[in-house]
Amino acid sequence: MSATSSTDKLVRMANQIATFFRSYPEEEAVAGIRKHLVAYWTPTMRARLEAHAPQAGGRLDPLVVAAIAHPAAVPSPVRSATSDPHRLGEGASDAG
């Protein structure tokens, strides 16, 4: 078993996302992080990160803290036909 917990791995991954967005203006960085978390993380992963944030102290990048506390609900940028297997093929081209 790894010495790093799964929560520590979530913190590390979230901080890596924040590192990518560090060069953006703060408002855009926070929105970009939030959009990434909504699009690519499962609801369980997001919930665990949000629950851990208060006790993470300085280990969680302030941009991530702002992104998970962002009040606006961000819809997933992934098309519903792609993200929902029940809708597979919707919106696809019938060419070819």
**What is the CA–CA distance across the termini?**
50 Å
Query: Helicity, in percent?
Result: 55-70%
Dominant shape: globular
- Compute the CA-based radius of gyration: 16 Å
Class inferred from helices and paired strands: mainly alpha
What is the percentage of strand-forming residues?
under 5%
Number of helices: 5
Write down the overall mean pLDDT.
82
Number of strands: 0
SSE arrangement, N to C:
HHHHH
List segments where confidence is low: pLDDT < 50 over at least 5 consecutive residues.
none
Largest sheet: none
Task: Please characterize this protein's 3D structure.
Helix 1 crosses helix 2 (26-40) and helix 2 (26-40) crosses helix 4 (62-69). It is globular, with a radius of gyration of 16 Å. The N and C termini lie far apart (50 Å). The relative contact order is 0.15. It has helices at 6-21, 26-40, 43-56, 62-69, 80-83. Helix content is 59%, strand content 0%. The protein has 96 residues and is mostly helical.
What's the helix and strand layout?
Blueprint (H helix, E strand, L loop, with lengths): L5 H16 L4 H15 L2 H14 L5 H8 L10 H4 L13
Helix pairs in contact: 1-2, 2-4
Feature tags:
single chain, mainly alpha, 96 residues, 59% helix, 5 helices, 0% strand
